[in-house]
Specification:
It contains five helices and six strands. It is an alpha+beta fold. The chain starts with 11 loop residues before the first strand and ends in an 8-residue tail after the last helix.
Length: about 190
């Protein structure tokens, strides 16, 4: 790779747009393309969309810094606009939050939720520690229920569906998902 310009001022990001494809021959030999995450590309499970995000930006991002701030690749549009000083209109990047403060080390949450969808149209939402996934069509993410709910702080492998034991959380997340999806945007309006 050749970097153009002054390397001391270049932001380099290493990431992926979604989880890995299933590699059945390798799986038979014990290889897991998404590590311990459940699911793969095109699914609502973590293996379908949780990806590495590694950024290097000398004099801006501290070497070895780590962050647990929730971000989405759609956020890069607003972050890059902030870096370059470009003004995004309200019709641009409807799901893009400016996560530049997180890149620069701020630990405060910038976005509170992320919507996800799978290849067959099922929807999911991550909000705080909770992740809700809807049931849709031929794919039942609810594992026999009307949906699935996971506590991602305690169960990032998504092994225990808490749908029945937390009906108030399910109701709240279903309403959030419906509103955000219906609004056609998740980012706050821009002036």
């Amino acid at each position: 790779m050749t970097l153009v310009g002054n390397r001391a001022h270049t932001l380099v990001i290493f990431t992926s747009d979604n989880g890995a494809e299933p590699d059945w021959p390798a799986r038979k030999k014990g290889h897991k393309t998404n590590g311990e995450f459940r699911g793969q590309k095109r699914t609502l499970h973590e293996g379908g969309h949780r990806v590495p995000f590694i950024a290097r930006w000398p004099k801006k991002i501290a070497a070895g810094a780590r962050s647990d701030v929730l971000i989405c690749l759609t956020d890069m549009m607003a972050a890059f606009a902030a870096i370059t000083g470009y003004h995004l209109s309200d019709a641009m990047g409807e799901d893009s939050y400016n996560v530049l403060p997180a890149l620069l080390g701020e630990k405060k949450a910038i976005r509170t939720s992320i919507l996800h969808h799978d290849i067959r149209g099922a929807m999911g939402i991550r909000h705080g520690k909770w992740k809700y996934m809807s049931k849709s069509g031929r794919v039942n993410h609810g594992e026999g229920k009307e949906g699935a709910l996971y506590d991602m702080e305690k169960d990032w492998r998504e092994t225990t569906n808490l749908y029945d034991s937390h009906p108030e959380v399910v109701k709240k997340l279903k309403a959030m998902l419906k509103k955000q999806h219906g609004d056609g945007r998740t980012a706050p309006a821009r002036k």
